[in-house]
């Protein structure tokens, strides 16, 4: 599968990302609303697995984007255009409009805490100030948009990809990505062991950060680099991956499971093509960064407290409408003409 392979331009990654975003929405609705009826019973559909799958897709596509870019400026321009306009819009809309549901007076709302929220969130440091004054204090979790924690990891990965590409060109991708993959798995395992032994939540949080998640990016990048082999031997790759994931439900295989997940994700991204979903736009990012404030607002308003499925339907309707509007009013306007989302509609 070379650079001009049809699979790299005719694929299911847009649809796959949307399905993963919807998976995250379902999980967050169950957690934040308290409706256990909406909680997925299948382990493979957990929010954690969906986020890891997002990282795999990013590893594959962003590595490809960097390798194909004519310059570092071109690469970073594409990343900023794709990520930041929608992110900025959602952060600022929440910061300004949620004064309407704050328990604080207007003067107390627009305070130092508000400025800290805006400043830290606009530079992807959501953890420094995840709440707004008097907003969602009575909810299960007071964070305005807890889903944003993954975006700082994405941004750090974007910053490191040019270095990864350079190292892979100099030393070959196999040793570089294999070392990074193993180091990431080892880090996550050590943090998990420390969390078990100490009972401290700090180590759980540290395991979730970039070093512990890098194995998923690296696995996605590795499958991009060995795409010829992957296409030729895809049956063997999938059989091994499914066996590892099934065995991992009985006996954990932390060294192999991230790569096995990556194989399954990339398989569905590249094979079984279902059509040009990109011609409609890419709504997955909007769904991901909008859905938590929508859920929080509905929980805060005490709407549909006895109707879990109606609650979910309203969340889906508002989030979907918001994501479509965000795409057409903000995201699409900042993309380059060469973007496949623009060319797909022509």
UniProtKB/TrEMBL annotation:
Keywords: Acyltransferase, Membrane, Transferase, Transmembrane, Transmembrane helix. One of its GO terms (cellular component) is membrane. The keyword Membrane applies. GO terms for molecular function: acyltransferase activity, transferring groups other than amino-acyl groups. The chain crosses the membrane at residues 15-35, 42-64, 84-102, 148-168, 175-195, 210-227, 234-253, 259-278, 285-303, 309-330. Residues 11-325 form the Acyltransferase domain. The keyword Hydrolase does not apply. One of its GO terms (biological process) is polysaccharide biosynthetic process. PANTHER family: ACETYLTRANSFERASE, ACYL_TRANSF_3 DOMAIN-CONTAINING PROTEIN. This is Acyltransferase. It comes from Candidatus Accumulibacter meliphilus.
